Model the fold of this input.
Amino acid sequence: MQTRKKLTKLFTELKIAQQRIQDNNNILSQLPTINDIDEYIFEPNQAIKKVIQDEKSLGTLSSKKLKQPAEPKNQGTVAMKLSTHRRIYAKTSSGEKNCWISGIAVSPQNQLFAADYYYDSLKMIDIINGDIKQLQLDSKPWDITMVTTDSLAVTLPDSKTIQFISFSPDSLLLKNKLKVDGECYGISHHQRKLAVTFANPGKLQIMYLKENTKVTVDKDSNADNIFRKPWYVTTNSHSIYVSDDGNDVVLRFNWQGEMVGLVGIRRPRGITLLDDGSLSVNGYASDCIYRVSGDCKDSKIILKDVNRPYAACWCAETSSLCVSSFMEDSDDNYIRVYKMM
Done:
């Protein structure tokens, strides 16, 4: 019985093979023969041939120097005025204890993002109507940077992690995490690169996201530590600026990690770039806000009597400076918004 089944299967496969052979023969018979192929001969243009017959090459290849971004001018010398501020509250309910807004950022859609260190959360605040949406995080956040028009990155120093988050007008959504090799605090994004500051020990890392590589800056030419408490950082196309609270200084680096300038500010905290390339720096101990030139050669106080200014961000769409404050056991549940005049 088993032999009969095998013979039947073999007979069926032979019939199928015969049909395939016949089909292939039909296809081959329809292909063009040697007599159906047209031959072509290239005849060069004699006028062109005569012109180039004495030339040795068609041209030369040379390198082209790309235009580098212009170095910042000594901004900060022009007078700048700030209007009376308004307040945006960050508490989600009256029953909450006071917030600690350690990092702020603003989107082009006028959404204000606040890292609440006390509540282990990220808050998205509608600047127009004050509505708040809150996303719980698995660790205390410190600083925020916009990555794209609908995503941002938050540093979580206790878990040594950078958390990426997407957002829409109505929601916040946790995305991927990036594990780092230290307690990450300040963060700034520019053209697929992250500048991140670390504490314990202090250092700056330049992370190239596309290439998955990084450059670490922590020692000077004498092998001494550069940083003590580099809490915040901001960037543009040619510079990285770090506020070092422990050394009372704002430092400027290029994207190769070389220090190219510094200016003294007493206990600087939040730092943000203004439209003209100058910087706004929060002086935490002096209760002042400073304007620092892009080359870090000049600084001026532009606002006094600001209660313990902490985090800062600049909103280019509204020409406004956003500043949070922090003092133990005080009502610091709001973010001040100053209009530049």
Notes: The longest strand covers residues 171-179. The longest helix spans residues 2-29. The two ends are 99 Å apart (CA to CA).
